[in-house]
Each structure stands twice: as C-alpha cells, then as structure tokens.
Amino acid sequence: MTDDRLFSDEELCPWLLEWQNMPEYDMHDLAPKFQIIVNFACAADVEDFGKLIGQPLSAQDGRQLQSVWYPDREYAPLVNKRYVQRVTR
Fold it and tell me: What is the total count of domains within the chain?
C-alpha cells in the first residue's frame, strides 16, 4: 500500500526534525470541571455575591467580570515567559 499524501510529515511539520529525543511534555487540563451561570437583578446583588464568595466581581478598570474561579486561582500571565538556550564555553 502506498502513501497517497501530497506532503510528508517533515514538510507539514518541519519542527518534527528538531523534536527528536526530546522529553515528553504533559499539559495538564486547566479547563473547569463544572460551570454554572448566575444571574443578578441589579449591581448591588453582584456586589453582595462578591462579598459572599470573598472575591471582587469587577475588573480593575471598573467593568464587571464575565467569569471567576472559586476558590480564587492565582493568575499566571505567560506573555513574559521565554525559553532561552544557555551557551556554555
């Protein structure tokens, strides 16, 4: 049986050639396991609910948040993370 593909794996994914003998990376599933939607009749109710769960429900710029984690999770921005190669001499 012949391979009828137009492009090889190396042509479609050139990084495959560089990724030989690399360690496995296990990405943990960070998606929530459960979600609920809570509706509020007024802004005061939102504020009361935030006090009840111990989390502010408005963003720093004053907008209301669309979602929160309970219990609160520490936010870890990844935009400032880089992989660097150390050159040893």
Answer: 1
The stretches of the chain forming alpha helices (DSSP H) are 9-12, 15-18, 43-53
Taking Cα atoms as reference points, which of 88, 81, 89, 83 lies closest to residue 18? 83
In a domain, 25, yes or no: no
The four Cα atoms 61, 64, 69, 74 give a dihedral, to 10 degrees, of 0
CA angle 65, 71, 76 (to 5 degrees): 70
Q: Residues 55-74: pLDDT tens digits?
A: 888 767 777 778 888 888 87
Residue 87, SS3 per DSSP: coil
For residue 41 the two structure tokens come to 């009749």
Report which residue type is found at 66: Q
The residue range of the domain holding 46 is: 31-74
Q: Rounded to whole angstroms, how far apart are CA atoms 26 and 79?
A: 20
